[in-house]
Structure formats: structure tokens, C-alpha cells
From TrEMBL, chain A:
Pathway: Energy metabolism; oxidative phosphorylation. The lineage of its organism: Bacteria, Pseudomonadati, Pseudomonadota, Betaproteobacteria, Nitrosomonadales. Cytochrome c oxidase is the component of the respiratory chain that catalyzes the reduction of oxygen to water. Subunits 1-3 form the functional core of the enzyme complex. CO I is the catalytic subunit of the enzyme. Electrons originating in cytochrome c are transferred via the copper A center of subunit 2 and heme A of subunit 1 to the bimetallic center formed by heme A3 and copper B. GO terms for cellular component: plasma membrane; respiratory chain complex IV. The chain crosses the membrane at residues 30-52, 72-95, 116-138, 158-183, 195-222, 242-266, 278-300, 306-329, 350-374, 386-408, 420-442, 462-484. Keywords: Cell membrane, Copper, Electron transport, Heme, Iron, Membrane, Metal-binding, Respiratory chain, Translocase, Transmembrane, Transmembrane helix, Transport. Belongs to the heme-copper respiratory oxidase family. Its EC number is 7.1.1.9. This is Cytochrome c oxidase subunit 1. It comes from Nitrosomonas eutropha.
TrEMBL record, chain B:
It holds the Pfam family COX2. Its main location: membrane. It is a multi-pass membrane protein. This is Cytochrome c oxidase subunit 2. It comes from Nitrosomonas eutropha. The keyword DNA-binding does not apply. It is found in: Cell membrane; Membrane. The keyword Transmembrane applies. InterPro entries: CcO_II, CcO_II-like_C, Copper_CuA, Cupredoxin, Cyt_c_oxidase_su2, Cyt_c_oxidase_su2_TM_dom, Cyt_c_oxidase_su2_TM_sf. Residues 118-258 form the Cytochrome oxidase subunit II copper A binding domain. GO terms for cellular component: plasma membrane. Residues 22-117 form the Cytochrome oxidase subunit II transmembrane region profile domain. Keywords: Copper, Electron transport, Membrane, Metal-binding, Respiratory chain, Translocase, Transmembrane, Transmembrane helix, Transport. Belongs to the cytochrome c oxidase subunit 2 family.
Length: 525, 280
């Protein structure tokens, strides 16, 4: 560690090689680590998805035995949620929050290092669980007991991994909250913060609120499995439904944890490429806050078929539908931001527009799922699979791509290849819809989720969906190629790469951003 | 080939709405509803789709216009407006009104779904890893009890025999019920959580070990209605279908008599065997 006073960032006695990365406390290094880790996990989770779609390509059991298939769906979900999407957003937070609020680094630099290095441990636990006796957890990413009390050692490894992921998230969020609240440049009041920072501030509060709840659920399942307790075992006086309430009290805010930072990125990108201020900044902030607040009161909409009193179903239906209002406000505001702007369509803008269009489709199917009678038909079917992939893949993942293309020039100092970027967008857009749009039909026609084999009337759409999924998976290799090429070299990026950019990292810092930035805070007017 | 399939898919989606009320069987939509509840669900889904479509066209019509006209490449200069309280208020209030319009019929359906009182016949469905057990516990047929397992052969699943028409959706013993009677189903489970689901009847209810839940249906049209377990329950989750056969009243009464005869014969047989065993 740099014990010597590091004046203006000129004295560098950092360790080099692997030790640089193991011991780093620099927000940019840690951000890079997070982003590389999550990209690797995207491909691990993607590999599992390819396995699932290969098995479902045709009726009959061909590639994966039913138990292995269940492990694939379980680990696909867990790895994508905890390994890919969440760390990717923390990576963006690490890189961008200090740059956007004019702070020299994150508030707790060592904690930052630790919260990252927990992740590979958790990921290792998950991945190696495939090779232990009994195989990986196969009870779904939601690990409902009593099914999750049945699995072998792989299930314990999975539960422990979730614990470790949770710890990492809590530490990361505390760091983010402290940084945003205490380290803003003079003059940057809360209501002058960029939308991305706002979205992360609220997300971090959600994380701190619900992650401990998940930890509680995980702990109870662990003790039920290993120490003879009966929290969720009816025969011992417990209640399996209680698990679902606790899990979804975490699980529903969790989906907003994955999507709120996406709203932030899209707000930045749309504004920049429309060359116009964000429409309704104040209502955007309130909308995010309202979504976050409401998200804590709707968890039982995942449980409409579990059985609950009429009043319970009505309350959770109304509350869920209400979320459509602030979400609608965001979409209308983005549209109004583009209206009479001076639009250009570089790759980040394309991904953001793609995000809005497809996220709205996911939002619509969300409202459909919120209507209890309809949910009785579509719950636990491919309709739900289609719904949450529209909000998580073409939602969170598209926004991540948008943000990556947007900030890559600032991070690397080089321009990415625009032509290839556009190819990446269009191929992703087409294959994504081929893969997931038909799943709406599958769900309506009655195909349950999490089955390795299906009745013959579902064969056509499954084949189409698999073809789309393979195409989508392959397309993402293009992204890796573009990023590696951009890191290695390329056209020199201007300090203010994008004409319409207005946040501090573009107006006050060179490209690439130096290892230490904003040691003297800028003054925001 | 793939192109024509996609076209067929698209055109079907476009004409989907015109089937509202007609409710023909389609692989693009919910199955043909057989109960009043399933019909209400079907109609509400179509209504929701139309509302979504209108909003989608509205929003992306505006955005599309902007994308075509307000581009820098055609020399469009950016305006500088950034908020309008009135406009923002309008697009907050209108969605609220739309949501109220959607939730009103839904609320009535929920209340109707939950009313399991005054059933003519009550059947208990128990989920096992991996089959269903049925006990007729009240009404005509009381005392009948059997297990219902997947009837599709392993050879078909393993691709060693051609797959039959009802591949994975056929069982050895169907649940049999009469037409025009209110059937209440009690759901529970023996080991892990399962879910009893028959799409055409508009019933899906989790079966939870240690707890009893219920649902009801009433079918006018005789027929065989197929569904599946809808809650992940382990490795054979995809292989425990639910098949309900709805018969006319007289036919049902005959089925009950046959079943009960077979059951009492079985009881006599067991008794004889036991007797024989104790004598030896």
C-alpha cells in the first residue's frame, strides 16, 4: 500500500502484477475487477442457458438428465443474478460514482477491496458444486423448502455462496451510500446529482434493507438442513409458505436493485445523445424513490397461487399495479427528453432505445401478471420466463451494454469500433426477440417452467426460442472482442467524447481518466 | 421455412384480438376456456392486451416520430425545455385511471374464484414425488380413492419410440367428474410443494405439505382436460400431469358404481388374503 503521501498521484509504489489487483484500493481498479468478473459470470451463466435451450430444442430427453437440467436452471438463475448483473452494476458504481460526483475515490477503500474479493470465492463455491457428490443445487434459484432441504452437499454450497454474495452486496452498498452522501464536490446538492448517482443511492438503500432478510432466510434453510430445526418443515411445526414470504420480501426489491441503476444509465445516455436536458428531473427522482418504496410492499404477487385470503390477493394486486405509474412516468419522461432533441444514434443510444422498447414490453407483461386471475394461468409458466427476461436481459443487460459503450472511451482512452458496436446491438436485438417473444405463447398455451421435456404442441416455439438463444449467446462473444480491442488500442478518445455529455467525468477529466482523479474537488455551479 | 413460420406467427398475433369472446383454441393464446372463471380470465387477458397495444403504439409512435424527424443528421436543432408540471400530472393520472379500469373486473373474478362454498363434490388432490393421489371425500363418489401417474412410456421420453398424441399429458387414472356440478378440489402434498393446474378450467393452486388449500370449477362440456404440475418438485417435475375427464351425469354415476364395486372387491380380496395369511 502507498504509505508515502501520494501527492497529485505522481508517486506510484503500487505493487504490480497480480498483487496490484489483490491489494488494490483504487476505485477504478476495483471497478474493472467487478466488470471483468461479471462478464466472466455472464458467460458461465450463458453456458448454462445454452445447455437448457439445447435440451429444450426438441421434445424428449437428449442431453441433460432431468436432475442435471434442474441444476442448470437453478445455477443459471443464481449466477446471472448474483454473479453477473449485480456485480456489473457495482462495477459501474465504483468507476462512475466518484467520477460523477467529483470525489477522489470511494469512502471505504479497503472495504471496497474486500467486498470485491468475496465474489470469486462465492462464484467458486457455486461452480464447483457441480462436481460434488449429488451435484449442484436443483431446487430453483428461489430454493423453496421443503424441496431445498432434499438436495445434497451442493445445496449447502449454494446457500453458503448466497450468504457470501449477500455480504459483498451489503458492504458495497454501505460504501456507495457513504460516498454519495459525504463526498460530493462543493455545490453538488442532492438535486443536482446525475441520475445514475441518484438511482444507485436508492438502490443501495434497498440492498441494505433486503439483503439481511435474505441472509435470514438462507440461515434458516441451512439450519433446517444441517441442525434439525423446523423453520420451514410443517411436520416439525414450521411453515414452508413463510419461507416464500421472507424470500420474496428480498426477492422483489431485488429485481428493482437490478433495474434501477439501468434507469440511471439510460437517463444519462438518452440525455447525452438527445443533446437536451433530461425532461422532468425532479419527477424522475421521485419516480425512482416511489418504485423503490412500492417494491417493498408487493412481494406476495410472486405467490398468488400459493393461496392467501381474498383481501391479501387484492392488496398485492393493487399495490403491484401501482408500480406501473412511476415506471410509466420514467418512460414518458425519456420520450419527452428525446422529443425535439437533436438525436444521434451511436451504440450506447441504440442500446438505450432498445432498452426502452423492450423494457416496456416486459412492463406490460408485468401488469398482465399482476392481475390475479390472469396470473393464476400464467404463474410458473413460460409467460413469466418471457416477462422477466424482457426486464432483466433486454432491461438490465441492455442498459449495461449501453453504459459500457458510453463510458468505455473514458475508461480506456480509446474509441470502440462503432460499426461492430452497431452489429452487436442489432444482432442482440433480433436474437433476443426470437428467443423470448415466442415464450409468451408457450406460457399462454400452458407450458410450465423448469421442465426438461414438454408436450408436442410446444415443439415449434421451443425450437425457434432455442435458435434465438444460441444466436444471442454467440453475439455476446462479439462484445468481448469489441471491448478487448478497445482496451488494447484504437482511435484516441476526446476528453469530452460525446458532444451532448454534461456530467463531471466528461467536462473535467481527460480520457482515459487518470489513476487518481479529483484530488482537488471541482466546484459545481 | 423459418420465414414463413415467423410470418404465420406475426399474422396470428395480429388477429389474436378478434378472437376475443369467440375463444377458439390456439397455440398463441390461453386454451379454450371451459369454466366461467376461465372465460373471465380469457376475456380480461384479451382486454389487457388491447390496452397494452394502444399504449405501446401511442408511446412509440411519438418516439418513432422523434427518431425520424428530430435527428441531428437532418439538421434538427435541439430545443431546451425540461419540465412541464401539467403534462407530468396528466401522464401520472391517466395510467391510474386505466389501472382502475383493469382491476375492477379482476376484483370481481378474484372474489368469485375464492368462493368454494356449497360444492356438490369435494375431491382431495395430494401431490407426491411424482404423481397425484385423489380422494373423493364428499358428494357422489365419496370414498373413491386412487393414484394418477404418467402413462407415457420411458421409451417415448428416451426417443426410442415415436411420441404419442398426448405425450407427457396422459395418465393411468383420470380424475372423473360430472358436468354441471360445482367441484371443489382440496390441495395438499406429501413431501414437497406441487401445484395442481388445468389451464382450460382456470384452476392453478399450490399443493403444500402440511397445509390444505382449495379451488373450484364447474364444467358444462364433457371432455378431457389436461394440465401439469406447475411448481418445481424435483427431478420428475415435468412428468406428473393432471388429467380431468368431465362426463355427463349418468355416465359419471355408472363410473362411480364401477369404481366402488372394484374398490369393495379389492377390500374383500385383501381381507381374504389377510385371512388366508393368518390361518397359515
Amino acid at each position: 500500500m502507498a504509505v508515502i503521501q501520494d501527492v497529485h498521484g505522481h508517486t506510484h509504489d503500487h505493487p504490480t502484477g497480480i498483487m496490484r489487483w489483490l491489494t488494490t484500493t483504487n476505485h477504478k481498479d476495483i471497478g474493472t475487477l467487478y466488470l471483468c468478473f461479471s462478464l466472466a459470470m455472464l458467460f458461465v451463466g450463458g453456458f448454462l442457458a445454452m445447455g437448457i435451450r439445447a435440451e429444450l430444442f426438441m421434445p424428449g430427453i437428449q442431453i441433460l438428465e432431468p436432475e442435471v437440467f434442474n441444476s442448470f436452471t437453478t445455477l443459471h438463475g443464481l449466477i446471472m443474478v448474483f454473479g453477473a448483473v449485480m456485480p456489473a452494476w457495482v462495477g459501474f458504481a465504483n468507476w462512475q460514482i466518484p467520477l460523477m460526483i467529483g470525489a477522489p475515490d470511494m469512502a471505504f477503500a479497503r472495504l471496497n477491496n474486500w467486498s470485491f474479493w468475496l465474489l470469486p470465492i462465492a462464484a467458486l463455491l457455486l461452480i464447483t458444486s457441480f462436481f460434488v457428490p449429488g451435484g449442484a443445487a436443483a431446487g430453483g434459484w428461489t430454493f423453496y423448502p421443503p424441496l431445498s432441504t432434499q438436495g445434497g452437499m451442493g445445496t449447502d454450497m449454494m446457500l453458503f455462496a448466497v450468504h457470501v454474495f449477500g455480504m459483498s452486496s451489503i458492504m458495497g452498498s454501505i460504501n456507495i451510500i457513504t460516498t454519495i452522501l459525504n463526498m460530493r464536490a462543493p455545490g453538488m446538492t442532492l438535486m443536482k446529482m446525475p441520475m445514475f448517482v441518484w438511482s444507485w443511492l436508492i438502490t443501495a438503500y434497498l440492498l441494505v434493507l433486503v439483503m439481511p432478510v435474505l441472509a435470514g432466510a438462507v440461515t434458516m434453510v441451512l439450519t433446517d438442513r444441517n441442525f434439525g430445526t423446523s423453520f420451514f418443515n410443517a411436520a416439525g411445526g414450521g411453515d414452508p409458505v413463510m419461507f416464500q414470504h421472507i424470500f420474496w420480501f428480498f426477492g422483489h426489491p431485488e429485481v428493482y436493485i437490478m433495474i434501477l441503476p439501468a434507469f440511471g444509465v439510460v437517463s444519462e445516455v438518452i440525455t447525452t445523445f438527445s443533446r437536451k436536458p433530461l425532461f422532468g428531473y425532479t419527477s424522475m427522482v421521485y419516480a425512482i424513490a416511489a418504485i423503490a418504496l412500492l417494491s417493498c410492499f408487493v412481494w406476495a404477487h410472486h405467490m398468488f397461487t400459493v393461496g392467501m385470503p381474498v383481501t391479501g390477493q387484492l392488496f398485492f394486486m393493487y399495490a403491484t399495479m401501482l408500480i406501473a405509474v412511476p415506471t410509466g412516468v420514467k418512460v414518458f419522461n425519456w420520450t419527452a427528453t428525446m422529443w425535439r432533441g437533436s438525436l444521434t444514434f451511436e451504440t450506447p443510444m441504440l442500446f438505450s432505445i432498445g432498452f426502452i422498447v423492450l423494457f416496456v414490453i416486459g412492463g406490460f407483461s408485468g401488469v398482465v401478471c399482476a392481475i390475479v386471475p390472469i396470473d393464476v394461468q400464467v404463474q410458473d409458466t413460460y409467460y413469466v420466463i418471457a416477462h422477466f427476461h424482457y426486464v432483466l436481459v433486454s432491461g438490465a443487460l441492455f442498459a449495461l451494454f449501453s453504459g459500457a459503450y458510453y463510458w468505455l472511451p473514458k475508461w480506456t482512452g480509446h474509441m470502440y469500433n462503432e460499426t461492430l458496436g452497431k452489429w452487436h446491438f442489432w444482432l442482440s436485438m433480433i436474437f433476443f426477440n426470437v428467443a423470448f417473444f415466442v415464450q409468451h405463447f408457450l406460457g399462454l398455451a400452458g407450458m410450465p417452467r423448469r421442465i426438461p421435456d414438454y408436450a408436442l404442441q410446444f415443439a415449434d416455439f421451443n425450437m425457434i426460442s432455442s435458435i434465438g438463444a444460441f444466436g444471442f449467446g454467440l453475439t455476446q462473444l462479439l462484445f468481448v472482442y469489441i471491448v478487448v480491442k478497445c482496451v488494447r488500442g484504437g482511435e484516441k478518445a476526446k476528453d469530452k467524447t460525446w458532444e451532448g455529455a454534461h456530467t463531471l467525468e466528461w467536462t473535467h477529466l481527460p480520457s482515459p481518466a487518470p489513476y487518481h482523479s479529483f484530488e482537488t474537488p471541482p466546484v459545481v455551479k | 421455412m423459418k420465414g414463413s413460420k415467423l410470418m404465420a406467427l406475426l399474422s396470428n398475433f395480429v388477429v389474436l384480438g378478434s378472437y376475443s369472446g369467440l375463444a377458439i383454441s390456439s397455440k398463441y393464446n390461453l386454451p379454450e376456456p371451459q369454466t366461467p372463471i376461465a372465460q373471465e380470465i380469457y376475456d380480461q387477458h384479451i382486454m389487457a392486451l388491447w390496452i397494452c397495444l394502444v399504449i405501446f403504439i401511442g408511446v412509440f409512435g411519438v418516439m418513432g416520430y422523434s427518431i425520424v424527424k428530430h435527428r441531428k443528421s437532418v439538421g434538427y436543432k435541439a430545443a431546451n425545455f425540461h419540465h412541464s408540471t401539467i403534462v407530468e400530472l396528466i401522464w401520472t393520472v391517466i395510467p391510474v385511471l386505466i389501472l382502475i379500469a383493469i382491476s375492477w373486473p379482476a376484483t370481481k373474478t378474484i372474489i368469485a374464484m375464492k368462493d368454494t362454498s356449497e360444492a356438490d363434490i369435494t375431491i382431495k388432490a395430494t401431490g407426491y414425488q411424482w404423481m397425484w393421489g385423489y380422494d373423493y371425500i364428499q358428494g357422489e363418489g365419496e370414498g373413491i380413492s386412487f393414484y394418477s401417474q404418467l402413462a407415457t412410456s420411458q421409451d417415448q421420453i428416451r426417443n426410442q419410440a415415436p411420441k404419442g398424441e398426448n405425450y407427457l399429458l396422459e395418465v393411468d387414472n383420470r380424475v372423473v367428474v360430472p358436468t354441471g356440478k360445482k367441484i371443489r378440489v382440496l390441495m395438499t402434498a406429501n413431501d414437497v410443494i406441487h401445484a395442481w393446474w388445468v389451464p382450460a378450467l382456470g384452476v392453478k393452486q399450490d399443493a403444500i405439505p402440511g397445509f390444505i388449500r382449495d379451488a373450484w370449477f364447474k364444467v358444462e362440456k364433457p371432455g378431457i382436460y389436461r394440465g401439469q404440475c406447475a411448481e418445481l418438485c424435483g427431478k420428475e417435475h415435468g412428468f406428473m400431469p393432471v388429467v380431468v375427464e368431465v362426463m355427463e351425469q349418468e355416465k359419471y354415476s355408472r363410473w362411480v358404481v364401477e369404481r366402488q364395486k372394484a374398490a369393495s372387491a379389492a377390500v374383500v380380496n385383501t381381507a381374504l388374503v389377510k385371512n388366508g395369511a393368518s390361518k397359515n
